[in-house]
Amino acid sequence: MRLLSLEGKLAAALAAAVVAAAVLGAWATIWLASPWLGVGATLLALALPALVFAHLLARPVAALIRALSGSVVAFRDGDFSFSIKGGRGDEVGELVSAHNELGRVLREERQHLFQRELLLDTVVQNTPTALVLVEDGGHVVYANLAARQLLNGGRSLNGERFDEIVASAPAPLARAIASGGDGLFSVPFEHEDETFHLSQRVFKLQGKPHRLYQLKRLTRELARQEVATWKKVIRVISHELNNSLAPIRSLSHSGRELVQRNDAARLRIVFDTIEERTRHLENFIQGYARFAKLPTPQPEAVAWGPFLEGLSRHYPFRIAGAPPATTAQFDRGQVEQVVINLLKNAHESGGPADAIEVAVAQSAREARIDVSDRGTGMSETVLANALLPFYSTKRSGSGLGLALAREIAEAHGGRVQLANRDGGGLTVTFVLPQRG
């Protein structure tokens, strides 16, 4: 609790000095019978107490200022252990209390920061991803355990020149780092070939540019994904084979019975059904073969008008706007196959057939084909997986239509995009780069 403010203490001291000077001046005037001596005594009586009181008040303030100065220097150097003895009930005491509270908060924050840094360092050091931080001069300033094991036989890398380390590394790693970007490479590691993903990022640390290299081992993950993909392929193929072989087996047995009965009319139905199932099975196998052995695109000049007219003979649609008068460069057969698959999906989407439309746009850099419908669209999960091979939500779907579209687009250097439409439906965008 504040007893008396510093301003109050100064006012009290001044008032006491004035009273003492007045008393001494009156005494000098009466007893010495001289006004001038009274004035002189008054001034002397006023100055001496003022000096004494000023000294008494300034000494603790000066000592506090010196203590604060030393404490601020300690804070600047990261030492927050200093505190100042308090006990005063004025503004100076409040300043001391605020200073001590600031020191306590800074000590706690530093302890929390130290704990977070310790946790982060533990996580980074034990992550399987190799991390190397290189300053602008080319020296390594940080490398975790995985980086030491991969690049320096487990020894520390701090302070080493990164270019010298890379020079002694396997050639694929050196080429990947020299590219300046992200990429995959394979090197012998721990007695087997290991595939790594390299990521390089530049950022500023304490105002200076640094480069962070991340090398992640992918062989085990790729092997797991490969096994999972093969299992899915086997399940899909087994399902389709069983769907065709089971009725063929049953129909063969029925055909044998009809031959014995000489029922030629019903026997024709049996053979027609067997032929239909074998044709379906053949188309299914050919679809997988086309996906696995997609030939290199052979771009040619294609006029949009005849191209769209040829598509309309397979599935009806309406054209949104006039097609470009210029020609585009792409493999006509492959792109035609893609758009036919997209039109087939649009007709199976559950929307009205007369709402299916195809829009074509072309610029100097790319050609764009949009196939839109007013069906049910796709959920977020389906949108995220629709372009993956063998992923299908249809009971009889192979999961190759959109995957094949993506393969053909990427073989051309393009891309495929899926987006739900406002008001319902889906738009599939097929983009092909154009080179002048």
Give an overview of the whole structure.
By secondary structure, the chain is of the alpha+beta class. It folds into 4 domains: 6-109, no CATH class; 127-217, Beta-Lactamase (2-Layer Sandwich), CATH 3.30.450; 223-292; 300-433, Heat Shock Protein 90, CATH 3.30.565.10. It has helices at 6-32, 35-76, 91-126, 145-152, 162-167, 171-178, 219-261, 264-292, 304-312, 332-347, 380-385, 401-411; strands at residues 130-135, 140-143, 183-189, 192-205, 208-217, 300-303, 318-319, 327-330, 357-362, 366-372, 415-420, 426-433. The strands form 3 sheets. A 5-stranded antiparallel beta sheet has the order 2-1-5-4-3. Strands 7-9-10-12-11 form a 5-stranded mixed beta sheet, covered by helices on one side. β11 and β12 form a beta hairpin. α1 packs antiparallel against α2, α2 (35-76) runs parallel beside α3 and α7 (219-261) packs antiparallel against α8. 17% of the residues are buried. The model has no long low-confidence stretch (mean pLDDT 78).
List keywords for this structure.
histidine kinase, alpha+beta, EC 2.7.13.3, 5-stranded mixed beta sheet, 436 residues, Sig_transdc_His_kin-like_C, elongated, kinase, PAS
What is the CATH H-level superfamily of the largest domain? Histidine kinase-like ATPase, C-terminal domain
Mean pLDDT: 78
How far the N terminus sits from the C terminus, by CA atoms, comes to 85 Å
CATH architecture field of the largest domain: 2-Layer Sandwich
The secondary-structure element order is HHHEEHHHEEEHHEHEEHEEHHEE
Identify the CATH class of the largest domain: Alpha Beta
| CATH topology title of the largest domain | Heat Shock Protein 90
Instruction: Say how many strands there are.
Output: 12
Indicate the structural class.
Answer: alpha+beta
The figure for the number of domains is 4
As laid out across the biggest beta sheet, the strand order is 2-1-5-4-3
Gross geometry:
elongated
Individual helix count: 12
Largest sheet, in brief, is: 5 strands, antiparallel
What's the Cα radius of gyration? 44 Å
* Helix residue percentage: 55-70%
Q: Strand content of the residues, in percent?
A: 15-25%
Low-pLDDT stretches are: none
